[in-house]
Amino acid sequence: MPAFHAPLDDIRYLLHDVHDIGQLAALPGFEDATPEMIDEVLSGGARFCEEVLFPLNQSGDAEGVHLANGVVTTPAGFKEAYQRYTADGWTAISAEPTYGGTGLPEMVRFVMEELLCSANLSFSMYPGLSHGAYSALMSHGSAELKQRFLPRLIDGRWGGTMCLTEAHAGTDLGILTTRAVPNADGTYAITGQKIFISAGEHDLTENIVHLVLAKLPDAPSGTKGISLFLVPKFLPTADGGLGARNGVTCGSVEHKMGIKASATCVLDFDQATGWMVGEPHKGMRAMFVMMNGARLAVGLQGLGLSEVAYQNARAYARERLQGRSLTGPKHPDGVADPILVHPDVRKGLLRIKSLNEGMRSLAYAVGIRIDLEHRHPDDAVRQDASDLVALMTPVIKAFLTDRGFENTNIALQTLGGHGYIKEYGIEQYVRDARIAQIYEGTNAVQALDLVGRKLPMEGGRLVRRFFEQVKADVDAAAAVAGLEDFSKALGTALYQLQKATMLLAERGFANPDEVGAAASEYLDLMGYTAVGWQWLRMATVSQQKLAAGTEDRRFHEAKLKTARFYFGRVLPGTATLLSAIQAGSAPIMALSADEF
User: Which SS3 state, helix, strand or coil, does residue 257 take?
Assistant: First the structure.
């Protein structure tokens, strides 16, 4: 049977020592969010994930969801777990106090999201979608819509969804066909079908608030003609209760490779009553609030699954006896040595460990900047934070989920044949991790967003500022004894990334295929460099701790050893990525369609 223990030591190290969570208490509205209080909140969240949600993960996968007469039932234990989740206030954790939220920093919810994904990814989907709906309404909803719907989303009595995809359209939202016809009372009649709707129907909440993309009768073509509408499952009454059933039904649920306890639905809208969110024909602007938040959350899914898979592979490698060390028996009194003595097993586990810890730091660096972006009184600080969040959003989504899938597979391989059977739990993590590379915009779409939108944004300011921050840390570390090798390795990766950036800028004007051909490799190159940046910061902190005589020497010594593995065995892969980018689009585009 698998196990999960929240990595609180590493989380606290990052929050306190690397990213200075204490700075958040100085922001307006966060005065009570002291490091001690945040620690206490996260300790409670860790216990909930370990004791309530994780025990339901395998059983939920085995049972899945059930659809009968348009009603979806979640697996045994999910409803009771959700009731505890809402009673403990987790749905309100970072929501606005005006509408019933606790007003904690977004960084706290960020960490909690990772723990939820490690413990039970399917369960995390339900409140995760609700938070996305909350965010879109907070940013673009009218005062009336906020007052009517936000308190119920925040206390968890109502759930939320995002309804974008249609069977014929997929990522190309500009050709969606769902229609919104104005009613005399100011509402709209929504008609159409949406597919792949996570949490589209379930029994955890008394109502579900769908945010639906549709087109008005006079809509221009393409994405410029899309509007956003709020369509509840039950129409609310004047006093906030439940009224008549709206014209939205669940036609079917998908039978999926993974996340089987998460209801992925086909929703049919038949003259359903809805309210416009934001302005006519500008629905994508509102929906992007939800989509960008979802992309960061999906990145945390990759990290969360990679962490729990690593924990179980590590435990197996410590206990499984097979073969002898190449340098002689390490346990001569036993029948064999634990497989952890074998270099290839160690190499796989160290790759996962070094990526997990580096990706966690990168995710938290983005999470804390979301709070700085929204709350810091200094315009320059807010802008710097906003720039890094925007640049890193596609990287977090794609890089963390690509590595998450790769890492769960390495974990499975560590267990050998036992990894392939259900009892040990690893094969579920592989299946669950695969979808994260696809939904909320495939990782290829994220790469195109990075090179096509984020790099040229504001005259290249976002990427230029990122280069400046990394270069400053490289230069500072170069003068510190013991960090020279790390600084040199990251400096090389940064140079390769800058070279690739210039190459794309030069070639892209002449041939857009050059950008498309290099996009995925470029995103990976930026991802490995960004994680290396975080490892340099962690190595600097841990070396300082050791020099100061910390009592936790083993923790910080392990950090430096893991950093050395990342810089020596993982980061050099950036050279291969640069070579692929330099090869250009010709090898990809040369074949005609009938030559494939």
Answer: coil
